[in-house]
Design a protein that fits this description.
Shape: globular
Bound molecules: NADP nicotinamide-adenine-dinucleotide phosphate
Number of domains: 2
CATH superfamily of the largest domain: Medium-chain alcohol dehydrogenases, catalytic domain
Helix content: 25-40%
CATH class of the largest domain: Alpha Beta
Structural class: alpha/beta
Order of helices and strands: EEEHEEEEEHHEHEHEHEHEHEHHEHE
């Protein structure tokens, strides 16, 4: 293994100084009891990065509290805090925690994921939030092999991972939505059997048509807005609808009849608000079911582009454009 020299200071992208991230030097964090220190080789952007940057911008009424941006990382463990026995120095890891746009990150050892041999950090860093969120959502819905799944906003970075997880866990049929006809192949390559282009087709009608009028067993909804309402009538009796994202906004007017007559269960999941006790369960399910599929190349993130941390403005611009397909990776 390459010899790693830990300096006192590290480069990091800070939010809270203005409308853009600022590349600066901050102290390298030290692992406390139960924590590990990770040399971060690559970090991936998330949909939440820009809203959090804007909320912190003191020049436009934001709270002005500085923090290291970013959520996903991949690298190797270089120091162990007191009491950590499940990891050793040199282990290849990946994970999802705040403050990942930096050369080093500290993480609670319980929530670090093993990075399969041969999976490059630039690929691995784009997986953890998708793996944890999508597998957690499927588990919340009580998904079992042989059930059908509808994924709205299936072209989103985490939606594409959700489709691959559902396929890998034995979904009988995966239906995915996009607004953009040009993304059909992207969805098909991720394992989506039936693509619904919502700018051209009615989501409810198309889903019922694709399922012989029955509807799907499980919905993973990344879009919300009126799409969430349309999902209810597209779900089978006793089915589960899990809201994950609000790409079209958080407000929806729903037909309660659709909910009640079908005996549906609606869930909300928010990985960022997951309590430690719940996270332990999510990781316990992920390790045997999903990490082997990652190791066998059945689950791969879609990466829009990879930039060096010094080119952070390019990453922010690409995120703002709304044209990125998949994750933008930042090399610290
Ligand atoms: N619950 C959680 O724990 C959790 C965790 C991570 C992310 N999320 C949420 O999940 C969602 C997806 O995250 P991401 O980072 O994977 O997203 P992303 O990659 O940025 O998704 C971008 C894609 O979403 C689609 N989209 C954008 N605006 C839309 C709209 N108004 N209506 C319908 N589709 C729209 C577009 O695809 P088309 O052109 O194909 O329509 C776009 O290419 C976000 O809302 C995010 O905040 C939730």
């Amino acid at each position: 293994m390459e010899k790693i020299v830990v300096t006192d200071m590290m480069r990091a992208l800070i939010s809270g100084r203005g409308p853009e991230w600022v590349l600066t030097e901050v102290p390298v964090p030290q692992p406390g009891p139960g924590q590990v220190l990770i040399r971060n080789r690559a970090a991936a952007t998330n949909n939440a990065d820009l809203p959090m940057l804007a909320e912190a911008d003191p020049t436009r009424g934001g709270h002005g509290k500085e923090f290291i941006a970013g959520f996903e990382y991949a690298g190797e463990i270089i120091a162990l805090g007191a009491g950590v026995e499940t990891w050793k120095i040199g282990d290849s890891v990946m994970g999802s925690i705040p403050s990942s746009f930096a050369e080093y990150v500290v993480a609670d050892h319980r929530f670090v994921l093993p990075r399969p041999t041969g999976l490059a950090p630039e690929t691995a860093c784009a997986l953890p939030t998708g793996l944890l969120t999508e597998h957690g959502a499927l588990s919340t819905a009580g998904f079992v092999s042989g059930q059908s799944v509808l994924i709205t906003g299936a072209s989103s970075a985490i939606g594409l991972i959700g489709a691959q997880i559902a396929k890998s866990l034995g979904a009988s049929q995966i239906i995915g939505t996009t607004r953009t006809a040009g993304k059909r192949d992207l969805l098909t390559e991720a394992g989506v059997d039936t693509v619904i282009v919502t700018d051209e087709q009615d989501l409810t009608e198309a889903t019922l048509a694709a399922t012989g009028g029955k509807g799907v067993d499980v919905v993973l909804d990344h879009v919300a807005g009126q799409t969430f309402a349309q999902c209810l009538s597209a779900t089978a009796v006793d089915g589960h609808v899990v809201n994950i994202g609000r790409l079209a906004g958080p407000v929806s007017t729903i037909d309660i009849d659709a909910l009640s007559y079908r005996h549906l269960t609606v869930h909300g999941v928010s990985f960022g608000f997951t309590r430690d006790v719940e996270m332990a369960g999510i990781i316990a399910g992920l390790l045997p079911e999903v990490i082997p599929a990652v190791a066998h190349d059945r689950i791969r993130p879609v990466i829009d582009r990879t930039v060096n941390i010094t080119d952070f403005a390019q990453a922010a611009g690409r995120l703002r454009s709304g044209e990125a397909v998949g994750k933008i990776v930042i090399r610290p």
